[in-house]
Amino acid sequence: MLTEFENLGKPIHEILTIYPKVIATGKDAGKTKYFLKSFIPFSSGNEEVQVYVEGGKSAPEEIIRQLWVYKLIHQYGYHADQIDLEKSVQFGTEIGTKSADIIVYTDATKTTPKLIIECKRPKRKDGIEQL
Question: Can you point out the beta strands (E) in the chain?
Fold first, then answer.
């Protein structure tokens, strides 16, 4: 159960838009993949992300990320233009080798990070080292 998101004001299935697409070409031709429309574009410019493929990989941490973005905007009052997703960050001397799941900046100039959030799928216990 995703208890962190019980107080969003509406059920999760009414907040997230997940939809299927049948892949037409390539090695996955004929497979159905499920995508989620992001509340804000990723740093790469993508506005959707795959969350599941039939008979294969799922990405439950992406659902968690989107629920956090929703909560940051609708409950904590941050503006979408203050938030970046999958943004490369500098840690010490390492530049651009790691990316943060969510960065909330102090304002829309996106110069000074205020929050850095690392998302994990439900019930996962590790991740502190990554953060």
Answer: 18-22, 32-37, 48-53, 83-91, 94-105, 113-117
Task: Using DSSP, state whether 14 is helix, strand or coil.
Answer: helix
Give pLDDT tens digits for 22-52: 989 988 888 899 999 999 999 888 999 989 9
112's tokens: 């000074």
Q: Does 21 map to a domain?
A: yes
Cα three-residue angle 58-60-65, rounded to 5 degrees: 135
Q: Domain range holding 90?
A: 10-117
The reported pLDDT for the residue numbered 98 is 76
pTM to 2 decimals? 0.83
